[in-house]
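I had to read the description of the data format several times before I understood it. Each protein is reduced to its one-letter sequence and a matching series of backbone shape codes. The format is easy to grasp once an entry is in front of the reader. For illustration, here is how one protein appears when written out as sequence plus structure tokens:
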Amino acid sequence: MQNNNKRTMYTLFLLGLAGPVYGDVATFVGVGFHSAQNQWSECTGISDSTGMVSGTTKGSGSPGETQGFYWTKAGGMVAIGNPPLSVGSPFGGAHDISGDGFVLAGTTKFDGLSSAGFNYNIFTGFTPLAPTVQSSLAEAFAINGDGTISVGETRHGGYVGALSHTEATLWLDDGTTQGHGLGLFPGGTLSTALGVSRNGKVVVGEASRAVEEGMTAFRWDDINGFVSLGDLPGGYHFSRANAASEDGAKIVGYGTVSFNSAGFSVDHRACYWDSAGVHELPNLPGSTGITEATDITPDGQTMVGWARYLATNVPVIWDDVHGVRNLYEVMIQAGVDMSSWGLGFATAVSADGKTIVGYGYRGNPSVREGWVCTLP
């Protein structure tokens, strides 16, 4: 009962900090920077209801070490720094935030190539997800709805040698740094977990298999293990799964539809997988460029990502009502001034599909800045 009361108090605190998440008016807001000297930021995650956003920015030093942050409409950007380490000078970033807005998941890198995943609770601070020692090679990329499960990868056997391989990894919120390796496909040497369903039961990502030339998108659960999701027809086999719906029934990412004579992917398209197989998502009208879906709402009705369009990249939203839309054009049509924004990518969407985050370039000279977009 005390834990429930504590969580309720935290939720009320977050709601007060966040302020109104969206209203009847469309908005497109840059989140700014931690340092005026090193103007660089990107948003990569958003909570389900509190409007808490996660991302990465640069510090004030030279060359400006990257670090995670959380942002709210009312409180602005709060940089979290990096966890204390016994070796090296850390730099890193926050890749995702739990649905309840309490916990950020990310990676800190140190001592050259070494790295360790972390969770950051906005009330209690850092919890390492791998030993912060010189031999550590681990990263955390995503976190589930209540912040109890994080996923990413662990590198075993160093970067070279017969024993070297990367394994998709799952960490539980149990106070330890030990991750649980999810394994590999037969004959494969690499698997990376890039997303996890809100309920924490389905993990998605990319992995290698001996039977295919490139990488394949996968779905994992503790009953079926690794299952290849396959690829779009027509290309060198290279697909990736980035995110899953609440129960993992719908998964988004990209597949490859063509390749050059050397066998390299030159055209990948946003797609989703369900029980009926793989489905290519529509491209923007008049465009045949590459696209990618990066996130999906828990109910599977709205997806976001980016598309190559008119010699630049633009953030994109897909839903059953409107089909595919250029998010910049949606804002312009709603009366929002987008004249200073260029190249852009949508990285995450809130549970109700109303708030989208990402990053783009704006100004002259242009700087990379994270943004938060709210639909009317």
In short: Residues 30-143 form one domain. The chain is about 5% helix and 50% strand.
